[in-house]
Amino acid sequence: MKIGIVGLPNVGKSTLFNATTNGGAQCANYPFCTIAPNVGVVAVPDARLDWLCDLYNPKKHTPATIEFVDIAGLVKGASKGEGLGNKFLSYIREVDAIVHVVRCFESGEIAHVDGSVDPKRDIEIIEMELILSDIELVERRIDRTEKALKGDKKLRSELDFLNYLLERLSAGVNARSIDAPSGDSQRVLDEMPLLSAKPVIFCANLSDDDLFNGAESNRHYNEVCAIAAGQDAGVIAVCAQAEYEIAALNEEERAVFLSELGVGESGLDRLIAESYRLLGLISFLTAGQPEVRAWTIKNGTRAPQAAGKIHSDFERGFIRAEIVAFDELKSCGTMAAAKEKGLVRSEGKDYVMRDGDVTLFRFNV
Fold first, then answer.
1. Range list of H helices, the chain
2. What is the DSSP string of 249-299?
3. Dihedral of alpha carbons 169, 171, 177, 178, sign
4. Using a CB cutoff of 8 Å and minimum separation of 24, what contacts does 186-195 make?
5. 250 burial class (0-12, 13-18, 19+ CB within 10 angstroms)?
6. pLDDT, averaged in runs of 10, over the chain (365 residues)
């Protein structure tokens, strides 16, 4: 999973990126320049893996990972090349979802690029740049379709939808809020890498006092929540500076810090959980002495396709999957005890994987 972190300059975007990547068990950073963004790979925290490691004492422990991409601050006019915006917009096309950092804290020391804290205005600036970039893409697709229409009348319905899409985008509606009236229309929508169609998590960056007092006490945060509700977007509240400080602490110190802030888990943990929810992702687990590992798949994935995540041969030669729910395995204490109680099931090709399935695939090629 690749997540792009976007926002206006001076909203705390890079601070949040540094906090999330330094806080991960696995991290790979590359120096930022005006062409390539910062990239960090972060391990997904999963207590189930820790328990399985204690059970099997494996040679290798491999958590699921998320790749965060810190994209330079966008400014008004980015879609027309302001601030090298076109180059940075192109990086957003490569991500699965967008974390839009919105400044919700007041500070006399950190200047706002537009002179004041106004989440609604800031969100609209970024959204409009994404939409304007999408408009150019749709206009080019319309031009190509009109030329092809002369020899293929089946393209008429596609052209009609493209014109409808252009009309809605021109009215300031993001692509993820536009319904596709038919299967062919959805195909057209899926084929185009529209920036405003990507799932969005609004990350309201608060002061540590606001976080301590409760995010709902911050009027800017409540405004972001209202906007998110109207767009079917996710929203979390963080203090990027506090997250950066938390990332440098050991596990015990981190727990004390979070307790003092009055929050149960770090912003990174909440961001990952919201990303999984928004993208409809789950994890299944494989366990043994060679390796304990988490595998990320789409919710609704069937067993053979899940096996294909490990190796294409597993999917091609799939016979069955031997599965036990993690919670049932943990309650039994060992795999042998789970088998004795009949909790290890043999599932076929139609089985839909569930989050936390501890799985052994049987295959033959």
1. 13-22, 47-56, 85-92, 119-149, 156-170, 183-191, 208-213, 219-231, 240-247, 251-261, 267-279, 303-310, 312-316, 326-332, 335-340
2. S-HHHHHHHHHHHT-SS-HHHHHHHHHHHHHTEEEEEE-SSSEEEEEEEET
3. negative
4. 188/158, 188/161, 188/162, 189/165, 192/134, 192/137, 192/138, 192/141, 193/93, 193/137, 194/134, 194/137, 194/138, 195/89, 195/92, 195/93, 195/130, 195/131, 195/133, 195/134
5. exposed
6. 85 81 40 52 90 95 88 58 56 88 78 73 90 92 87 80 93 88 81 91 90 86 93 88 81 80 77 88 95 96 96 96 97 96 96 97 92
CA distance 131 to 140: 14
The pTM of the full predicted model, rounded to 2 decimals, is: 0.82
Query: What local confidence, expressed as pLDDT, does residue 314 receive?
Result: 96
The single residue listed with the structure tokens 């008004």 is 76
**Sheet order of strands, 65-70 included:** 38-43, 65-70, 2-6, 97-103, 200-205, 234-238
How far apart CA 111 and CA 116 sit, in angstroms, is 8
Tell me the Ramachandran region of residue 96: left when phi exceeds 0, alpha when psi lies from -120 to 50, beta otherwise: alpha
- Using the Cα atoms of residue 112, residue 114, residue 118 and residue 123 in order, give the sign of their dihedral: negative
Do β-strands 200-205 and 65-70 pair in parallel, antiparallel, or remain unpaired?
Answer: unpaired
The pLDDT of residue 83 = 45
Tell the residue number behind the tokens 């069955």, with chain if given. 320
Backbone φ, ψ for residue 10 (5° rounding) = 65, 35
d(CA 311, CA 298): 17
Question: Do 61 and 291 meet the contact criterion of CB atoms below 8 Å apart?
Answer: yes
Q: How does DSSP classify residue 352?
A: B
For residues 231 and 240, give the distance between their C-alpha atoms in angstroms, rounded to a whole number: 24
Q: What are phi and psi of 133, to 5 degrees?
A: -65, -40
**Three-state secondary structure call for residue 362:** strand
